[in-house]
Specification:
The chain is α+β, with helices and mostly antiparallel strands. The protein is built from eleven helices and twelve strands. It has a single domain, classed as Jelly Rolls (Sandwich), CATH 2.60.120.620. The chain is 25% helix and 12% strand. α7 crosses α8. The radius of gyration is 20 Å and the shape is globular. The structure holds fe (ii) ion (FE2). The site of fe (ii) ion has 4 residues, from loops.
Length: 354
């Protein structure tokens, strides 16, 4: 069957529509994987060959570098554009660049000794990503969650788990809460996921990209292999809220997933009952707090090789420039902190982490 999309096959479109995600193999330019992993151990100050130095089993790092989404992973970007219904629907600034905010699931020696049994329906931590805006059914701030795979992720290796039949419960919850949800989301909209039946845990190769609908519930799975599993987890943000009432039926795949979950052809009656709001991303608090110490280690490592500070590639060395200002805008760091919920200053925890 001929596809009506430019870059998605009919099978890929159907997979995204029915399961809420799509695996795009070998999609990241290798030069970025190599360049951004080169000083990985320097940044975190762990010894690659001595696991006793891996003191935190889970780390979320800040960005020091970023490039445009289409430069980083062109094939994946083309598919993102199709899924969003055209590039003109994508926010031209917010989250348009992808970077090296690495997320590492190391596992632990203790977890590696356990029977490697992972039961998603018994799992805690199911969520959708949103730490920076009041979320309504039609909110498209985190239209897609994108997993960039920086190391191979074997079976039992701590890949993200998604709940394919959980999206319907999320959209029904949001439909019945037109007042919207403010971060931190208490995961009430994902409370049903433990009753679901269809789960899939990421197994991938370095360089792969996995595209998730922004309302697809997901959770970390245990890394039973006790190695450094590295991903990043940026998003796609749209220019405007979803339109769930298009008389011409020209719904994007993202919108179709929502309508399918609701069992509707259109939702003309949905209207948020509170104003839309955005804030500084709450989870950036603890991640950005690492940046200064990381930078000091990167500079020290350069000097140890006889190089000077200018050889270190970090946006944090270019504060006060237009480039830094643009970086701040792209990531929402120019917005006000939500005075009620403040910033999260504590690293997320993993399932089975003691
Ligand atoms: Fe997430």
């Amino acid at each position: 069957m001929a596809s009506k999309y430019q870059h998605l096959t009919s099978e890929e479109a159907e997979h995204f529509l029915t399961k809420g995600w799509l695996h795009v193999p070998n999609a990241i330019k290798p030069e970025y994987l190599d360049r951004w992993m080169k000083d990985f151990w320097t940044r975190i100050d762990y010894d690659e060959h001595d696991k006793t130095t891996w003191t935190s089993p889970y780390l979320h790092l800040p960005r020091h570098r970023e490039v445009s989404a289409e430069e980083f992973a062109p094939v994946a970007w083309d598919k993102i554009v199709d899924i969003c219904g055209g590039e003109d629907r994508i926010d031209p600034i917010r989250e348009r660049y992808y970077g090296d905010a690495l997320i590492i699931n190391f596992g632990t020696e203790e977890i590696a000794k356990r029977e490697p049994v992972f039961e998603p329906s018994a799992q805690a931590g199911w969520h959708t990503d949103d730490d920076w805006y009041r979320m309504f059914l039609d909110s498209s701030g985190n239209a897609m969650t994108v997993i960039h795979v920086f190391t191979d992720i074997p079976e039992q290796g701590g890949g993200t788990c998604v709940c394919e039949d959980g999206i319907a419960g999320v959209v029904k919850y949001l439909y019945s809460h037109p007042e919207g949800l403010d971060p931190p989301l208490a995961a009430k909209h994902c409370a049903h996921v433990n009753e679901c039946k269809q789960y899939s845990t990421v197994v991938a190769k370095k360089g792969d990209v996995i595209l998730l609908h922004g309302l697809l519930p997901h959770a970390p799975s245990p890394n039973f292999l006790h190695y450094a599993r590295v991903i990043t987890n940026p998003h796609v943000s749209l220019r405007s809220p979803y339109n769930l009432n298009r008389p011409d039926g020209d719904y994007s795949l993202l919108e179709q997933v929502i309508l399918r979950g609701l069992g509707r052809d259109s939702v003309p009656e949905f209207k948020p009952t509170r104003e839309r709001k955005t804030w500084y991303p709450r989870n950036a608090g603890f991640k950005r707090a690492y940046a200064t110490a990381e930078l000091e280690r990167m500079i020290a490592a350069a000097k140890a090789q006889g190089l000077d500070e200018s050889s270190v590639d970090s946006l944090y060395l270019r504060r006060g420039t237009k480039e830094f200002e643009d970086f701040e805008k792209r990531n929402g760091f120019d917005k006000e902190v939500n005075g009620e919920s403040g910033l999260l200053m504590e690293q997320h925890r993993l399932p089975l982490q003691t």
